[in-house]
Amino acid sequence: MLNIPTSKKLPLKRSTSVLSDIWYYFIRNPEYNTLVKYKSRDDRERYSLAIIQRIGIDVHQFRLLNIHQIGIEAPGGYIFDELMRWRGDAICWPNHIARVHLGAGKENITITLFGKRIKLFSMKAIKIQSIPAVTDTDNARYFLYNCTGGYPIGIFSLYVRSSIPERGEEEMSQLFFLTSFNFYGKQFWSRIMPLRKVWEFVHNRVTSHVACRFKQLVEWRFENLKHPI
To answer: Which residues contact 64 (CB under 8 A, 6 or more apart)?
Structure first.
């Protein structure tokens, strides 16, 4: 048997069942709390304006703008390529609870509950920016989707750019999970505080775990690429 150095071993364990999905993504505390918390209404507006300018969505038409951010020690282009290579059955995703069905080129994606035909929501690509724009100075790339279905997501984006040291970002790149929630005409649901708190907790807990596990996976692969056995 090949004796692989500790630094070369995969840092994650693959989930094997619904119960292990619950353990890895719901019960355990994530390594990093990736949710971006707004300091004020003006702070939220600055974030919204920055997103509108970059990916061209009007976040004001939705009920809530939710952003998760995590630093990754790998180039932005490498991170985006990892996202492009993803085929749905990922070690950093709760596959047994929410199954991902990918269309060609990731233009269309459907998420189903427990691998069945119970559709949580569908995602249709508005734009996939695989090469930084000529005017970009931070190597930005992103996926932008319009979402429809039962789960209240209106817009979803995965956005990666080079880190900005002036903002205290130390890793090579920053990955953002951007979600605008739309309750599909049932905005009063968001005003039912117990329901909203439980739903936000579940969403943020799972998103943080996915972000942390993706960070571990990408950094492990990039390190092995730099220092192959």
So the answer is: 180, 181, 190
